[in-house]
Amino acid sequence: MDQRFLGTEEFVEDIRRDLNERPSFVYDISIDEIISEVGLVFNISKDLLYSNTRNRRGAFGRAVVGYLAKELANHPFKDTAAHFKRDPAVISKGIKDLEKRIGEDETIITAINMLRESLAKNRKKYSFS
Length: 129
Hints:
Structural class: mainly alpha
CATH topology: Chromosomal Replication Initiator Protein Dnaa, Chain: A
CATH superfamily: DnaA protein, C-terminal DNA-binding domain
CATH architecture: Orthogonal Bundle
Distance between the termini: 30 Å
Strand content: under 5%
C-alpha cells in the first residue's frame, strides 16, 4: 500500500484514480444543470433523484450525475453527495458501479456520450495550468 495516503486500499485507489484522471480543463456547469439533462436522457424524475428511497433508478441517476459532474465540471463527489443529501461513500460506490457498466453496456455508453456533448456545448472552458 502507498504510504503517502492513509486509509483502506479502496480509499487509496480512489485517490490515485482521482489524481491520474484530473482533467486538463473543465466546463462551467452546475450540478442542477447536469441533473436536468440526466433526468431527460434517462427519463428519471427529479423527485426520484432526490428521493430517500433506495430505488435503483434513482441511485443510477445520482451516479450518472456524480460521474458527469466530476468529469465535466470537476465537482468533487462530496459536493454531489451533499446536493442529494447522501453519504459521499455511497455516491462514490455508485459511480464505480456505473464505470463498470459503461465498459459493458453500449446503450449506457451512447447515453453518457450524448450527455457529455449536450452539457459541454457552448460552455465556457477553464484550463488547468
